[in-house]
Design a protein that fits this description.
With about 190 residues, the protein is α/β, with parallel strands linked by helices. About 35% of the residues lie in helices and about 20% in strands. The chain has 8 helices and 9 strands.
């Protein structure tokens, strides 16, 4: 609900493009088979703004009427939309606009080549998003609560986690405040290696 920001952060402009559109574009440019966009708060203006992207055949909208109950409800809504036979799922966040198709594809390829059931990017020892889970964890993911998301599942199964080291901190930057947006804009404008 963008409570810290006071307005819909998904529609905040970064270089004249809404934050969420950056993420949707990365998904569309990637190897992902299907893209389920989970919407709740401000769903109508988001759909109107992103209408051309949402018309893509790989994109499906899933509405989360219980978005006030936290991230877990969005996660569960997405899982319900994909169905039980999907072999794996990657969770991306709408406020991390620097995630690109290159990172998505890197994680997917590493995951597919591995026998691990969870895959996550790591920068200098810190784990971030997006995260891939095999179907093995779908039932546990459906039981998550509030804003914890899937963090506890990863922590409880360290032997199943494929940590993929990345070299760009900017992938992990998210936008919760106006200052976060300014920091991201400055990083993009400077084009200084991070």
């Amino acid at each position: 609900m963008s409570t810290r920001l006071g307005r819909s952060k998904q529609l905040l402009k970064l270089k004249d493009k809404p934050l969420l559109e950056w993420v949707v574009d990365a998904c569309l440019d990637s190897l992902l088979d299907r893209i389920v966009l989970v919407l709740g708060h401000d769903a109508e203006p988001i759909m109107k703004t992103l209408a051309p992207k949402l018309a893509e055949t790989r994109v499906q909208i899933a509405f989360n009427p219980e978005y006030r109950e936290g991230m877990s409800r969005s996660l569960q809504t997405g899982l319900s939309a994909i169905g039980p036979r999907t072999p794996s799922v990657m969770f991306l966040l709408g406020d991390q606009p620097m995630i690109d198709a290159g990172l998505i594809d890197l994680l997917l390829k590493k995951f597919w080549a591995s026998k691990k059931t969870i895959c996550a990017p790591v920068f200098q020892g810190t784990r971030g998003n997006p995260v891939v889970f095999s179907r093995h964890f779908f039932d546990q993911l459906r039981q998550t609560e509030h804003d914890i998301g899937a963090r506890h599942i990863i922590q409880n199964h360290p032997d199943q986690v494929l940590a993929v080291e990345i070299d760009r901190r900017i992938y992990f930057l998210d936008v919760d405040t106006e200052d976060d947006l300014k920091t991201l804009e400055a990083a993009l404008n400077a084009r200084v290696p991070d």
